[in-house]
């Protein structure tokens, strides 16, 4: 596994940032000492300290000391964050070598470049990872902005791909894909919980039902990826004529599970676009 010598900073130390940072450390891409996270309240960054990373409540300090900076604040925090940096950060000739990676939902590259206009020759990559990165099974997409080089893209791909699957896509596809891979884990967690509840209703102990439901989802997903078969084909292979599975599938159809999931993806995509329009 290739390693990076750069110092990695995270402006915003929340769940997504920690999923990426801890994943990079646990996979050996960087050492904990190469990582720094910032946030307004140091007590919220304790898990970063436990990881062995550096912490600060000064975004300007993080920007100064980092080579690759992940922007992990909420979209509505972006503008005040950048306004603060404009007054506290002293630009240096090294800024043209720094690489910025945004994980802000919906916020497009032109808006990101506008907010960081105090960095000359800004190299910004817009990305959307997901939280399963923390266990090495993430799914990330990314698009480059102005001044980004092929070498920069290779570094970002190395980091994201080490934590699961990573792929460069056109920026105009990011909001739609985000609704599948970024929001998708939350939808699947709900499905796992529901499957486990069904097991409990049938008398299965709670922890056992949760374990079996989780493994069933993991196994089903891996079967799709490894065999390359369409999910409908794999489903039909499980549904024996007159068997229990087809009876369960019938109930899913009556409950409009597929339509509900399609609607969930559509709603998430619309919200991502709405956020982008609001904060661009």
Automatic annotation (TrEMBL):
<comment type="similarity">
    <text>Belongs to the pyrroline-5-carboxylate reductase family.</text>
</comment>
<dbReference type="InterPro" id="IPR000304">
    <property type="entry name" value="Pyrroline-COOH_reductase"/>
</dbReference>
<feature type="domain" description="Pyrroline-5-carboxylate reductase dimerisation">
    <location>
        <begin position="171"/>
        <end position="275"/>
    </location>
</feature>
<dbReference type="InterPro" id="IPR028939">
    <property type="entry name" value="P5C_Rdtase_cat_N"/>
</dbReference>
<feature type="binding site">
    <location>
        <begin position="11"/>
        <end position="16"/>
    </location>
    <ligand>
        <name>NADP(+)</name>
    </ligand>
</feature>
<dbReference type="InterPro" id="IPR008927">
    <property type="entry name" value="6-PGluconate_DH-like_C_sf"/>
</dbReference>
<keyword id="KW-0963">Cytoplasm</keyword>
<dbReference type="GO" id="GO:0055129">
    <property type="term" value="P:L-proline biosynthetic process"/>
</dbReference>
<protein>
    <recommendedName>
        <fullName>Pyrroline-5-carboxylate reductase</fullName>
        <ecNumber>1.5.1.2</ecNumber>
    </recommendedName>
</protein>
<keyword id="KW-0641">Proline biosynthesis</keyword>
<feature type="binding site">
    <location>
        <position position="59"/>
    </location>
    <ligand>
        <name>NADPH</name>
    </ligand>
</feature>
<dbReference type="GO" id="GO:0005737">
    <property type="term" value="C:cytoplasm"/>
</dbReference>
<dbReference type="GO" id="GO:0004735">
    <property type="term" value="F:pyrroline-5-carboxylate reductase activity"/>
</dbReference>
<keyword id="KW-0028">Amino-acid biosynthesis</keyword>
<dbReference type="Pfam" id="PF03807">
    <property type="entry name" value="F420_oxidored"/>
</dbReference>
<dbReference type="InterPro" id="IPR029036">
    <property type="entry name" value="P5CR_dimer"/>
</dbReference>
<keyword id="KW-0560">Oxidoreductase</keyword>
<keyword id="KW-0521">NADP</keyword>
<dbReference type="InterPro" id="IPR036291">
    <property type="entry name" value="NAD(P)-bd_dom_sf"/>
</dbReference>
<feature type="domain" description="Pyrroline-5-carboxylate reductase catalytic N-terminal">
    <location>
        <begin position="7"/>
        <end position="106"/>
    </location>
</feature>
<comment type="pathway">
    <text>Amino-acid biosynthesis; L-proline biosynthesis; L-proline from L-glutamate 5-semialdehyde: step 1/1.</text>
</comment>
<dbReference type="InterPro" id="IPR053790">
    <property type="entry name" value="P5CR-like_CS"/>
</dbReference>
<dbReference type="Pfam" id="PF14748">
    <property type="entry name" value="P5CR_dimer"/>
</dbReference>
């Amino acid at each position: 596994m290739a390693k990076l010598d750069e110092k990695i900073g995270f402006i915003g130390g929340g769940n997504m940032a920690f999923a990426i940072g801890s994943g990079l450390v646990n996979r050996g891409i960087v050492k904990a000492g190469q990582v720094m996270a910032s946030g307004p309240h140091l007590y919220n960054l304790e898990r970063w300290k436990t990881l062995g990373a550096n912490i600060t409540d000064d975004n300007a300090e993080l920007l100064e000391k980092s080579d690759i900076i992940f922007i992990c604040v909420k979209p509505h925090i972006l503008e005040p964050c950048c306004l603060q940096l404009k007054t506290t950060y002293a630009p240096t000739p090294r800024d043209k070598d720094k690489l910025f990676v945004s994980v802000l939902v919906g916020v497009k590259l032109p808006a990101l470049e506008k907010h960081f206009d105090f960095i000359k020759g800004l190299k910004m990559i817009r990305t959307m990872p997901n939280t399963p990165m923390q266990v090495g099974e993430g799914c990330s997409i990314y698009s480059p902005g102005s001044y980004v080089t092929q070498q920069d893209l290779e570094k970002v791909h190395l980091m994201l791909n080490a934590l699961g699957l990573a792929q460069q896509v056109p920026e105009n596809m990011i909001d739609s894909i985000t609704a599948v891979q970024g929001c998708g884990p939350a939808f699947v967690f709900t499905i796992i919980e529901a499957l486990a509840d069904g097991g409990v209703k049938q008398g299965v102990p709670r922890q056992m039902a949760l374990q079996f439901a989780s493994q069933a989802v993991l196994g089903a997903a891996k079967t799709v990826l490894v065999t390359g078969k369409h999910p409908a084909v794999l489903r039909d292979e499980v549904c024996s004529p007159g068997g229990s599975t087809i009876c369960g599938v019938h109930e899913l159809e009556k409950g409009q599970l597929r339509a509900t999931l399609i609607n969930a993806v559509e709603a998430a995509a619309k919200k991502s676009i709405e956020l982008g329009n609001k904060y661009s």
